Amino acid sequence: MLDFGPSADPANQAAPRGGLSSSPPLVLYPEREEARHHWLDPAEGVARYLVGRISGPFFKLRLRRLLSQTLKRAGPVAALSDAALDARLEDARRRARCDGLSDATLAESFALIREISRRTLGLYHHKVQLLGALAMARGAVAEMATGEGKTLTSTLTAGAAGLAGIPVHIVTVNDYLAERDAETMRPLYDRLGLSVGVLIHGLQPEARRAVYGCDIVYASNKEIAFDYLRDRVKLDGAPRNLSLKLRRYFDPGAKNDAPVMRGLPFAIVDEADSVLIDEARTPLILSRETDATAERVWAETAHRLADTLHEPRDYVVHPRDRRVELTKKGKLSLEEQGTRTGGIWTNRIRREQAVQQALTARLMFHEGDHYVIDDGKVVIVDEYSGRIMEERSWNDGMHQLVEVKEGVEVTPRKEVLARITYQRFFRRYGRLAGMTGTAREVSAELSSVYRLNVVAIPTNTPAQRRRLGVRVFPTAERRWSAVAARANALRETGRPVLIGTRSVAASEQASAALSALDVPHELLNAKLHKQEAQIIADAGLAGHVTVATNMAGRGVDIGLDPDVAARGGLHVILTERHDSKRIDRQLEGRAARRGEPGSSEVMLSLEDAILTQTSAGRGALARLARLPWPVGPVAAGRLFRRAQRRAEAGHARARRTLLDQDRRLGTMLAFSGRPE
Ligand SMILES: Nc1ncnc2c1ncn2[C@@H]1O[C@H](COP(=O)(O)OP(=O)(O)OP(=O)(O)O)[C@@H](O)[C@H]1O
């Protein structure tokens, strides 16, 4: 059995940990070797798909058997006194430490955690939650409908792994959810003798190390992946057990140099499709700014040395290649001056490169052509589009050389230290599992990129959501008026209404339309997020109207007033189609949760971004405009769905390209000895 290093929480160390040896723990950094398989390999994709189809029913059968083993223990465990329950827990911990997550230990741990949850949180896991947790323990993505209680479900898997001595990372989409989930579930973990840590933005390395020392770590995907990148840079590439031990042996006090994580043993990813698929479009880049003064000195010296050279004796210019070449005489003259200047200038390659670049900056880069000076800054002009590119800078010191040439303030260089995609990062976990309400659309990608199978878990009670269809309006303005009128009518019947919008601007338009009808409402968007928790808490009250961006989407639980259910529950109005159908489904999922009543409807306009911002959408609109008869709602609805499918395919392509680039870059950099 692997030992994953010290548990850093003193509270946890004081807690009963029967079976834990007192010998100094080994510091390992477990992570999975980079898999050979690759998304773009079609043969592997087909093979995996077929294996998944064949083994799927057997897998479910195995889960059902495990479920009945767990349920058999429920009665006897419920009859135990508190003291007897604790004793049985210690026994289970001891066995789990030896056997890991075997079927027998899982069934026993689940039964105990379920009962302890009832006694501490007052929440008793439903059968379907046990099933979801078992699927995750066996490395799958549990697709559980929105509102089915994934947070509570994950406590079974995380708790069982914790009892077996496997550290768990519960990955959420943001810090707010990480903190909320950790705090709600803390009493349960405390009683299990497992320590819980929450990683939030701004924590110092020492505090982070303490958090990672806990048995269960709640963190957002960003925080955790950046910590991993920083560790990799510190460890100068792949961590080796031996090198870690040597470090500890020779330099035990060098805390700053030590990694903050204990490796990548087990991740349970909440909102798995969002984290593993949607976020996977952008790579994570860890960069460092160099010292601006040192850059200025370097660039000034390069220019000073370039001043002493003359064309054509010392250099020749190749305008077509935008390149300057030093002649033998030029090199000789530089050698003399380099020796006089000292420092890095004595190094022939670095000296000649710097001077060549300085000459290029002077002779080949022209103001108004390649760049402009804006507010005392050199800003690059894109040669193809003619637009200024505020965020871009030339690399290898060229930007600083142009800045010195123009006499403006020299900015630091951005040096890329490490780069990774979420795809590569999550594949390195020894065990990976996930949960979400919307996985079936991306099950093929989850399987081929992460080797994760999706298991659909039934709802605890039959869903009561009523879908009231799609209406399409010719202009956005008419849509907003209709949305406001509809919300007002529902509000007067005592039902709460949630209006979901795609952008801050759209949320403001919806709010203006409601104000025009004197409809009292709350607005929740990125600009106004201060009272987020309060707005969400009130959104289920009778007659409340809430306009929100996606901030009221995934993970948001809107509790209903007791009499609201009798009036029909929460009504959600979707005012635009998102780029992915899954986001629409998540928004709809705010209503009719846990078998409660609720309804949703869609109100779109032909001016919506999904149609107007893509060439395919614009083309379709133009064809519609030429039609001699008006289009009906069914045809218009289809138009939106097609545009959405195109957008989904475009994003999938972008992810595939990124993964491919990442893999190639990884191979190249591995050859040149870089960490990532
Ligand atoms: N077994 C249970 N018994 C009673 N209440 C439960 C149970 N499981 C979960 N709940 C409650 O259900 C609510 C919804 O839970 P949670 O927010 O975890 O759902 P979710 O599945 O994550 O939803 P979403 O998909 O929208 O993120 C919470 O208030 C939670 O306390």
Description:
The two termini are 29 Å apart. The strands form five sheets. This protein has a seven-stranded parallel β-sheet, with helices on both faces. A six-stranded parallel β-sheet has the order 15-20-19-16-18-17, sandwiched between helices. Strands 9-10-11 form a three-stranded antiparallel β-sheet, covered by helices on one side. α20 links the parallel β17 (522-524) and β18. With 676 residues, the protein is an alpha/beta fold. The protein is globular, with a radius of gyration of 30 Å. It has three domains: 37-68 and 126-286 and 421-456, P-loop containing nucleotide triphosphate hydrolases (Rossmann fold, 3-Layer(aba) Sandwich), CATH 3.40.50; 291-412, Pre-protein croslinking domain of SecA (Alpha-Beta Complex), CATH 3.90.1440; 464-607, Rossmann fold. Helix content is 49%, strand content 15%. The relative contact order is 0.10. α4 (103-120) crosses α6 and α12 packs across α15 (398-406). The protein is built from 25 helices and 20 strands. Adenosine-5'-triphosphate (ATP) is lined by residues 123-126, 129, 144, 146-152, 437, 554-555, 557, 589, 594.
Features:
single chain; 676 residues; alpha/beta; Pre-protein croslinking domain of SecA; 3 domains; seven-stranded parallel sheet; 20 strands; globular; binds adenosine-5'-triphosphate
